[in-house]
Amino acid sequence: MSIFNVPKREEVSELNQTIFNSLEEQIGFVPNLFATYAHSENALKNYIDFSGASTSLRAKEKEAVNLAVSQVNNCDYCLAAHTAIAKMSGFNDEQIIELRQGKASFDAKLDALAKLAKNITENRGNTDANVLEAYFNAGWTKENLIDTISLVGDKTISNYINNTTKIPVDFPEVVKL
Fold first, then answer.
1. Residue 56 gets which letter from DSSP?
2. Cα–Cα distance between 157 and 80 in angstroms, integer?
3. CB atoms within 10 A of CB 64
4. Among 7, 53, 147, 174, which is most exposed with the fewest C-beta within 10 angstroms?
5. pLDDT value of residue 2
6. To 10 degrees, the CA torsion angle through 37, 158, 80, 151?
7. Would you state the torsion angle of the CA atoms of residues 35, 86, 134, 143, taken in this order, to the nearest 10 degrees?
8. Residue from 125, 109, 100 nearest 57 by CA
9. Torsion angle, CA of 54/28/15/17, rounded to 10 degrees?
10. What domains can be seen in the chain, in order of their start residue?
């Protein structure tokens, strides 16, 4: 049970109310995690700007990272949200389970990406040289590496907010691994 409430529109700043309106237009609701960011005057906008910034990674690649990182950080909220997004991106249930485990037997390039994301997260950025070499050998670039590390940081922020606040998950629950 959470000691944090999920703030309602009338409990957040005007800036955050505007962002709530935009989220409702874009996705149909304000996810509880985003609403929780709105306890801060600036965190929600900063997070949306950061997570929506340009990147060399495509949507499916981002979801591979998001799933691997959220699994390592044991974030039920982000696992549920990114499982739903991964399904919309074209991944099936078996592929999503593999990505959560930090691998992708169905795609060599995604496999190297998922392994890297898992390794970076588990080792707090002290990446194993063999994992990094395999990542580059799979065709990833230095630009992709920096963007992947940025995405690991992005997802870790949300994982930590959820794991600290224990706000209710408003996406379909996922199988525990």
1. S
2. 16
3. 35
4. 53
5. 61
6. 130
7. -60
8. 109
9. -170
10. 10-51 (no CATH), 59-165 (1.20.1290.10)
Residues with Cβ < 8 Å from 159, sequence gap 6 or more?
69, 70, 73, 74, 75, 78
User: What span, in angstroms and rounded, lies between the C-alpha atoms of 34 and 78?
Assistant: 11
- In tens, the pLDDT along 18-77 reads 999 999 999 999 999 999 999 999 999 999 999 999 999 999 999 999 999 999 999 999
Write out the DSSP string of 88-112: HTT--HHHHHHHHTT--TT-HHHHH
The predicted-structure confidence for 112-161, as pLDDT tens digits, reads as follows 999 999 999 999 999 999 999 999 999 999 999 999 999 999 999 999 99
